[in-house]
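A favour, since you know our structure tokens better than I do. Go ahead and set the record down below.
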Amino acid sequence: MRLISNSAMLKKILFVATFILISTGLIFHSIHQKKSVTPPNDTQNITDAENAKKETPVAVAAPNEKTFFISGWLPYWQKKSGADSLSKNLALFSEINPFAYGVNIDGTLHDTTNIQAAPWLELEKEAQEKNVAVIPTILWADAPAMHAIFSDSQKLEKHVGAISTMLAQNNFPGVDIDYEGKDVADRDLFTAFLEALRKKLDPGKTISCTVEARTQDYPPADWTGTRAMSFANDYTALNRLCNSVRIMAYDQVFQMGGGKKIFDDANEIPNAPNADIHWVEKAMRYAMQYIKPDKLVMGVPTYGWEFSIAKTDLGYHYEKVKSVTYPQALEERKQGKATLERTDGGEPFFIYTAPDGKHLVTFSDTQSIKQKIDLAKNLNLKGISLFKIDGQTDPKLFSEIK
């Protein structure tokens, strides 16, 4: 009887101990769960409903450094210095995009850079050895010619066929469509072109679509034609038809002037941003409403703009002088003995006195470019594309963004 009694007592003790362990584990698990889902900056008096209202419309995941995409456009007008600069830094890039082709009036392509000659052949071979994709860019900026091709079924078929043949002959894995300055009235025609191209190409070929940035659905009432070119792209269709969508998040100042080279601005201080970080974020967040983040690529400038400026009763009058590279901007600042400053949007700028009056120069440096790369990572975008790699960028750029 004592043995039986001891056995019963032992079972009872084991049962109680097990219950305590399980309960303790559940309590610990519950506490752990609460800690993992409660935002660290929240206070106890903020309700779940209030937290929900504070959430941004787009969920931002942690950046993935290993898969962050970096590409660079190589201009045919600076192909030697661009290829030399890129060759030294190929390991940094996922993809390179030579401005290789233009479009003839009949829809056929013309080779703007002699893609089968130096320095492209050597660069392409080196890129292949380092597993860097070479995707040619077709650059076209003739709105009337685009309308003529897109609105004529035979010319459209010829154009699409020319692109398909070009990819097959050169064994390129895809194409970058950079058709800029389209008439807003041709929005649906451009979509129809992309649909025809998608249907024509082999399934393994990729289509990258490079388009102007915007921050809203519709243009101002008085913006028509090519002045509203950024609205000539159907973002929903781009998401459906393009493997990646590159938003040219620069030339912001021309949006202020509706695409014009001469305009007035009511700002109290001179303001000619090329890619203000606040505007860039607004443009990319807008695009994220329609295009999957893992398809979105932020176009990042390596250059800037120079304007003549004059004070008016309503603000400032601007006239475009020229685009400027990083070394050109520094030389002009030196010659003009100007003070280099930085805008609250992250861009370096200065004002100097030229023979015709005051000039404002806003440009890009490593710091402003790195700021945009960090933004792209924080938004969990596919990556960034640098415009342009021409041997004229900030010398510190490649060492800082590796």
Remarks:
- DSSP finds 13 helices and 16 strands in the chain.
